[in-house]
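Summary for the funding panel

The consortium committed to producing paired sequence-structure records for every protein in the target list. Below we show the first two records in order, beginning with the earlier of the two.
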Amino acid sequence: MTATVAYADVETGTELPAATFPVTRETLVRYAGASGDFNPIHWNEKFAREVGLPDVIAHGMFTMAEAARVVTDWAGDPAAVVEYGVRFTKPVVVPNDETGALIEVTGTVAAKLDDEARTVRVDLTARSAGQKVLGMARAVVRLA
């Protein structure tokens, strides 16, 4: 696959389609099984509270991956992302109910980096419960 978005069609300031990702305790258990990260802060409410957290929290790498989906869905190809990094600023707190939590992600093309390589930098904002959960979330994307 190659990216479906053309470099020539993108300008600085182009907004990516926003997305909201639900996260429940079941989601966290499934992610723990897939990732091998069985830290009890991600599934044991009593333990999470004992270590000073408000409740069970989502895996940082899970949160990071959900934010990246906005970029890969927009680009049309996961391999189009050539660099990606974030800083974890706040945890995604996941209550033990049917609703769980929501991760809301927006993205904007912040810069066209290299005309020859057709790369752009996308800045992402990820929020949950009204708080920014990722900082310095940036992806370099190679477009068609």
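The next record, for a separate protein in the list, is shown here:
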Amino acid sequence: MESSVSIEMAKHVLLSFGIILAAGSFSGLLAQKARVPDVVIFLLVGMLLGPEAAGLVNIRAESALNQIILIFGSCYILFDGGATLRLRVLKEVWITIVVIATVGVLIMTAVTGIVAFYVLKVPFIIALLLGATIASTDPATLVPIFKQVKIKDRVSQTVMSESAFNDAMGAIVTFAVLAVAMGSGEFSVSSALVDLLKQSFLGILAGGVLGYIAAFLIAHEKYNFLSEYAPVVTLMAVIGAYLGADGLQASGFMAVFVFGIVLGNKDSFGFRMENGEEEKLEEYVLTTAFIMRMFIFMLLGSQVDFKLMNQYLAGGVVIVTVFMLIARPLTVFVCALPDRRAKWGLNELLFMCWTRETGVIPAALAGLLIGLKAPGSQMIASVTFIAILMTILIQATTTKWLAGRLGLLIED
């Protein structure tokens, strides 16, 4: 009996995967024709396919399968994003990235928490927990957008790097506030700072070491005996970077992103692949990242709880509107404007103010809060999904238009 149940479950998963792949392929084509980022269409189609609508895809958010897809998919998209960054650009804007990924998260948390306190009439610590949950930007959303919409290098790479580096800060602040909300601890600035530095250092170290090893094995002049298996090496290294950093209690996402940066800049370390092998690897990474994007956002859309979201819809829309139009611009100008090294122009700052989609990382944090039965977790999950829908549907679809208006678009 157990084996038959397992077989039926396996068939259900295979059917769901087939539906996602079929619907995702047509959605990608539609997004291309409509000239909008494909994550927008994936999210909308996922909502239509989910149990709240057609009921064709029903993979629960708390299931191990869903978590595997979210973790690995986000990791691979991050790796792909890191591989597109160039060290010469990062050297110019690293101060802005560090400040906006740390101090910026605190500003977003504080402003959003204050607004939620007055709008939702919840205890301030719960409002602050909501602010911390949605404060970090989402690399799984932003990396694909900048892959499809060609923006001036230093702007796109700053926003992508911020989204990769601020997940550690977002998680630290969220769980620090949670400890206070549940009466199990007090927030300590010094301990939070030490924890952030530890997570960042170990994550960068793990990603850097694995990136160098992978580049050595696939692109060294003498010892590149795995050059033909470069795609498999990237898969192993992405998983190894995430799990290795996580085992060291560091940021796995940061490790994967740094791994991508090192491998993408392998020429700087004296490693060079043959043209045929390089093209094969790039094609594989591009295809795999597309599939991961498809699964992540269609599943995310299918898991939207419309009844729960409707309960906090009015207040959530107000909070997210302030979040987008006040909290984010304040964060960008406070964190980036003083960076004299980068010398940001007003058009660049305005673009960064608008581009900060919410997605997988905040959704994962909201899911963890529900699992921990944190106070206000249902409300936080609802507002988080409102933030995901509003930022992706409004900001992602207008990215190309705004970049064109601000003179930041690179025409093909």
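Regarding this second record: The domain at 61-405 is CATH 1.20.1530.20 (Na+/H+ antiporter like fold). The first helix runs from residue 2 to 34.
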